[in-house]
C-alpha cells in the first residue's frame, strides 16, 4: 500500500500543478528601434541625445563666437523594448492581469544602454472598478492620448513624461471614468540640494495625489484632472560654523490638466494643456526656489515656480503611409518673489518654448520606417524678482531624425 501511494504521489502533484497553472500565460511583444539624428545646434537633452528638449543658450568665447552654435549627430538603438503581458485566473472576484516591460535606456545618462524597468504592475478588474498596483505612467500622461512622435521625448517638455510607483483606482459607469491615484517617485524625480532624487518626496511622507474625470464616448476621449504634491528638500539645515538644525519645510505644489482625443476612421486629433508648479520630474519647465534663507535661525523656506504648456498632435491613419504633426508651446510663469537662495529645476532662464514637428511613416508588415523633423525655439533672458524672464533672445534647433522599427 505504501509503495502504491509513493508511486502515485508524483502524478497527484503533477495534476495539482497543472490545475494551478491552468489559465496562466504570458505573451511577449515589443520592438527593435534604431535611430539616427542630426541637430543644427547643441541642445538640452538626455539619453545620449535621444530625448531632445530645447536648444542650448548662447555661450560666447573670448572671440565672441557662440560655442553652442555647432551641429551634432548620433545613432542609438537603446529604446529597443520587451513587454510581457501576463494573464491568469481571477482573484478577489476580479479578472487578473499584469505587465513587465523593459528597455535599454538606463535610469540616467550615466547608464545609457543599461537595462531598466519601465512598467511592472498587477491589475484587478471588476465590472465597475479596477485597481492597478505597481510602476506605471503617471496620470498626467495618458497612454491612450499621447503625441505620436518618433523621437523618444514624446512631446516633452510640452507633454508631461513620467512613470511612478502607484496605487490607481478607477471607477467606471457607462462612458464615465473616475481615476484616483496615490503615487511615489522613482526614476523620474524632483530636483533638490542633492540633485534629482526621489528622497525629497519620501521625506515628505505624503504620496503624490491625483484625481481625474474622463468621458469616453465611443472612440473619443475628454477629461480633466487635478494633482497635489509635497516634497521636503532637507531634513536639516547646516550653516557654516554652526551645528545642524532639523528642518520641516516642504514645497507644496498643485497642477491641473485638461485633455481630449478626437478619433475618426481616417485621422485623429489630440490635445492637452497642463498648468502647474514644480513639474521637473515630468521633464517640464519650472521647479522651486529657496525663498528665505535665515542663517541665524538656520531656516530655509521655499516657493514653487509655475508653468503653462499645451500641445496638439494631428495624425492620419493610412495603411502603409501616415503623416503627423505636433505643435507645442510652454511659458514660464515665475514664482512668488523676491527670493534669496538657489533655484532647483529646469529652464530658470527660459521665458517660453515652442515646437513644430512634422513626421512621415512608411509601414510594410511589421516594419516601419520614419522621418521626423523637429524645430524647437527657446527664448532666453534674465529672471526678475518674480522669476519672470526679461530681455530675451531666441535660439532655435532643427532636428532631423530617421528611424527603423521592427515590431513583434
Number of domains in the coordinates? 1
CATH topology tier name: Porin
Number of beta-strand segments: 24
Helical residues, percent: under 10%
Give the percentage of residues in beta strands.
over 45%
Q: How do the helices and strands follow one another from N- to C-terminus?
A: HEEEEEEEEEEHEEEEEEEEEEEEEE
Query: What overall form do the CA principal axes indicate?
Result: globular
Report low-confidence residues grouped into runs of 5 or more. Answer: 1-9, 11-16
CATH superfamily: Porin
Any idea of the CATH class?
A: Mainly Beta
Q: For the report, how would you describe the main beta sheet?
A: 16 strands, antiparallel, barrel
Biggest β-sheet: strands ordered side by side in the sheet: 1-5-6-7-8-9-10-11-12-15-16-19-20-22-23-24
- In quaternary terms, these chains amount to single chain
The chain-level structural class is mainly beta
CATH architecture: Beta Barrel
The residue-averaged pLDDT reads 94
Provide a count of the helices. Answer: 2
**Ends apart, CA distance between termini:** 53 Å
List keywords for this structure.
single chain, 408 residues, mainly beta, Porin, 16-stranded antiparallel beta barrel, three-stranded antiparallel sheet, 24 strands, 6% helix, 57% strand, disordered N terminus
